[in-house]
Amino acid sequence: MPQLLDMPPTDPRVISLMNAQQRELRELYQDTDERTEPFDPAILSGEGCVLLAVQEGAELLACGAIKRLDQTSAEVKRMYTVPAARGRGLGRQILNELIERGRAQGYERLVLETGDLQAEAVALYERSGFTRIPNFGYYVGIENSQCYELPLKPA
Predict the structure, then answer these.
(1) CATH number of the domain at 3-108, please?
(2) Which H/E stretch holds residue 112?
(3) Which residues form the N-acetyltransferase domain (predicted)?
């Protein structure tokens, strides 16, 4: 059973997984204009967290993070599972832990963005209670972006 580790966003293993996610998204969306949000590990520092799913033997399997947006909100970021590890529930495991972390940190809601071609991600978020909202922040005006929100009840 993989274990979830808290990792600093600048750890080379975290950056490796997040870069793999970005390459996959650019390929999926044929994004030659680099329209995906630029990735800077520093945005995940501070009052958020980065989780990494690691198999025995240090095999990297999945990651996810939350970053603080304001006093009451955090954004789920960089959810990714390597292709060979998909279908094992790792995304759900990481998302559930991020929700609990957000609740424990006192956030009133989590928001996230995914793309319209990522049916598995959309299904995961909707099964986890996230509901569609208008695009926010960086994603305003990006047609293939879909934004979601999950109100958090206090722990």
Answers:
(1) 3.40.630.30
(2) strand 109-115
(3) 13-153
